[in-house]
Design brief:
The complex is a heterodimer of chains A (337) and B (314). By secondary structure, chain A is an alpha/beta fold. In chain A, 36% of the residues lie in helices and 19% in strands. Chain A has two domains: 173 residues, Thiamin diphosphate (ThDP)-binding fold, Pyr/PP domains (Rossmann fold, 3-Layer(aba) Sandwich); 152 residues, Rossmann fold (3-Layer(aba) Sandwich), CATH 3.40.50.920. In chain A, the strands form two sheets. A seven-stranded mixed β-sheet of chain A has the order 2-1-3-4-6-5-12, with helices on both faces. Chain A is globular, with a radius of gyration of 20 Å. By secondary structure, chain B is an alpha/beta fold. Chain B has one domain: 3-Layer(aba) Sandwich (Rossmann fold), CATH 3.40.50.970. Chain B has 13 helices and nine strands. In chain B, strands 2-3-1-4-5-9-8 form a seven-stranded mixed β-sheet, with helices on both faces. In chain B, strands 6-7 form a two-stranded antiparallel sheet. In chain B, strand 4, helix 7 and strand 5 form a beta-alpha-beta unit. In chain B, helix 2 packs across helix 3. Chains A and B meet through helix 3, helix 4 and helix 5 of A and helix 6 and helix 7 of B.
């Protein structure tokens, strides 16, 4: 099953189970079913609970919050992740704060689903990975499923969560197969899944034997990380572990520390721009928590600071690729030296 | 409260609706004057936005609502709305003073209140879609509730207000938007920040509207009654514009208005306008009762421990 289909199927199940679940967003109605078709079929089956909205992100963020404060479990589909910028006041000054500033006597159980990411040639305002903006907002949960996660289970958990959840999807992922681990393996790689609502997946090319580095990533960058790990084995005889975080806020550090305990070197990989990114937060926390495990500086691989250009050739230059990850790992003192 | 007690207290209130309106306004006035005094005395930390001069809006509108069913969403200038809706002097005072027993444990402070069906938030405009979403929730529950959101003329500068009016009209939401038009956005007079016709903004979205230039609590109540009735009976939004005036500064000491302008408006002080609702002797009696209630609350709040997360954990 493709990732987009898995999410769509999960939405149908969630709607069937809980009548407090509503869906709001732009262009949701069938036959359109949302710009990326993830909401297809819902408006036909539950016309009263699928509300297609005007192009008014600031307002629909607020309306979703109002529904959540008054007993519903709304899901808001934001057509492109870039458009969360339009709703940030509602997120920063409302959704993220209500529970704490109202002395823990309310909850805001909403889910914002939105696709981030490039590689579709949509250009500077439709290709960004802006989740790092959300990581600086205490009071929300940011979930980052990858194509190897149990997408349906994670979305179901997000809707059941009493905290406001940003469910960050990746628009390339929609069309790729949902490759779940089978008997602890994804293809040639061993895969361990952590506990919890939004688990992390840790991959190894040698059955969690000795390895030189941990590559921590999330969401749509997982296939890049796995391809890099494979190339490092085949071309450089270097074994690494890859951690795909299922949740980046609050940062799920445990699986990272666990892997670092085995490898001693950290490379972070994200599709957002470099400065002030998730990698920076990981680096800061890891050096504080596991300084004695580290053999050298943390290396960050991310999109170049700047725009994501439209032309494919330029987009490829800006985005991190397999070769960038391989270069970062082979440049690690311990590996290179 | 037992049935017996209710039966005993009811006759005292029967036929005294109008007295209650006056009392409520006097309480809000004295409460907020007290806050400004406490600030001046260095007893308060942070900020406050008082509605001194605008009390008829809070009291007149909220008199038409049922606190057990209806929802109120307010803004930074929320004390009057809160007291009119909840009568919770102690909870609000302690909240503003950062003491144990504050309605939000001292975390919200003056601008961020929650109790029962009352919510306020401090960023202008953001509350309108929030209220629209709550109205959607109440519509879906078929609770017959009206959700009232109070905004000022300054908030009419926020685009999200118009997005939300559009949606409230389109989706037929039981939403009452009350614009307390006091002629100023903080320090900026309307003439420098508001073009066109205020009611036409609502009409453009097919939202019923009316405008009332009054500080008479009875006239406010009657306008609000019509508006609430419209929302409850049709399930569609209403945009109620109330022209008023704020005697107090926007916040604490930040007032640069012409003192003569303020003095002229004081002739229309809602408490003066409503003075006829109660007899001369009663006014003094009410003033004394309100003074005592607020003063007691201040003494108790000052004696209460400061809010701390350590205490909460014990």
């Amino acid at each position: 099953m493709r990732c987009g289909q898995a999410l769509n199927a999960a939405l149908h199940e969630i709607f069937e189970r809980d009548e407090r679940v509503y869906l709001l967003g732009e262009d949701l109605l069938d036959p359109y079913g949302g710009a990326f078709k993830i909401s297809q079929g819902l408006s036909t089956r539950w016309p009263a609970r699928v509300l297609t909205t005007p192009v008014s992100e600031p307002s629909i963020f607020g309306i979703t919050a109002g529904l959540a404060l008054r007993g519903y479990r709304p899901i808001l589909e934001i057509m492109f992740g870039d458009f969360i910028a339009l709703g940030l006041d509602q997120v920063v000054n409302g959704i993220a704060k209500f529970r704490a500033m109202f002395d823990d006597r309310v909850t805001v159980p909403l889910v914002v689903r939105t696709p981030m990411g490039a590689r579709r040639g949509y250009g500077p305002t439709h290709s960004q990975s802006l989740e790092k903006l959300l990581v600086g907002v205490p009071g929300i949960t940011v979930v980052t499923p990858s194509e190897c996660h149990d997408l349906g289970a994670m979305l179901t958990e997000a809707v059941a969560d009493d905290e406001p959840v940003f469910f960050v999807e990746n628009k390339v992922m929609y069309g790729r197969p949902n490759r779940r681990p089978e008997e602890g393996r994804v293809g040639e790689l061993a895969c361990h899944e952590s506990e919890g609502r939004y688990p992390a997946l840790t991959f190894s090319g040698n059955g969690f034997g000795p390895a030189e580095a941990t590559i921590v990533t999330y969401g749509g960058m997982l296939p890049v990380a796995l391809d890099a790990a494979t190339e490092l084995i085949l071309e450089h005889e270097v074994f690494t572990e890859v951690v795909a975080l299922g949740r980046i806020l609050p940062l799920d550090l445990e699986p990272v520390l666990e892997s670092l305990g085995r490898t001693g070197s950290l490379v972070t990989l994200e599709e957002g721009t470099l400065t002030g990114g998730v990698g920076a937060e990981l680096a800061a926390r890891v050096q504080a928590e596991a300084w004695s495990d580290l053999h050298g500086p943390v290396r960050r691989v991310a999109t170049r600071d700047g725009i994501v250009p439209s032309a494919r050739s330029l987009e490829d230059e800006a985005l991190p690729g397999v070769e960038d990850v391989v270069a970062a790992v082979t440049a690690l003192e311990r590996v290179g030296g | 409260m037992g049935r017996q007690e209710q039966a005993e207290t009811a006759p005292a209130r029967a036929g005294s609706d109008e007295r209650a309106l006056y009392e409520r306004m006097a309480l809000i006035r004295r409460f907020e004057e007290t806050l400004l005094e406490l600030f001046a005395a260095g007893e308060l930390h942070g900020t406050t936005h008082t509605c001194i001069g605008q009390e008829a809006d809070a009291v007149g509108v909220i008199a038409c609502l049922d606190p057990d069913r209806d929802v109120v969403v307010s803004n930074h200038r929320c004390h009057g709305h809160y007291l009119a809706f909840t009568d919770d002097v102690d909870g609000l005072l302690r909240e503003v003073m950062g003491r144990v027993g504050g309605v939000c444990g001292g975390k919200g402070g003056s601008q961020h209140l929650f109790a029962g069906n009352f919510y306020s938030n401090g960023v202008l405009g953001s509350t309108v879609p929030l209220a629209a979403g709550m109205a959607l929730a109440e519509r879906e529950k078929q609770s017959d509730a009206v959700v009232t959101v109070f905004v000022g003329d300054g908030t009419l500068g926020q685009g999200v207000v118009y997005e939300s009016l559009n949606i409230a009209s389109l989706w037929r939401l039981p939403l009452l938007v009350v614009v307390e038009h006091n002629g100023y956005a903080q320090s900026t007079p309307s003439v420098l920040q508001l073009a066109g016709d205020v009611e036409a903004r609502a009409r453009a979205f097919g939202v019923a509207t009316s405008r009332h230039d009054t500080t008479d609590v009875l006239r406010v109540r009657s306008a609000a009654r019509e508006a609430v009735e419209h929302v409850r009976s049709t399930g569609t939004p209403y945009f109620l514009v109330l022209d008023t005036y704020r005697f107090s500064p926007h916040s604490k000491g930040d007032d640069f208005r012409d003192p003569e302008e303020i003095a002229a408006r004081r002739l229309r002080d809602p408490l003066t306008v409503a003075a006829g609702l109660v007899g001369d002797g009663e006014r003094d009696e009410i003033a004394e009762a309100v003074e005592g209630r607020v003063a007691d609350a201040v003494q108790e709040a000052l004696a209460a421990p400061v809010a701390t997360t350590v205490a909460a954990a014990q």
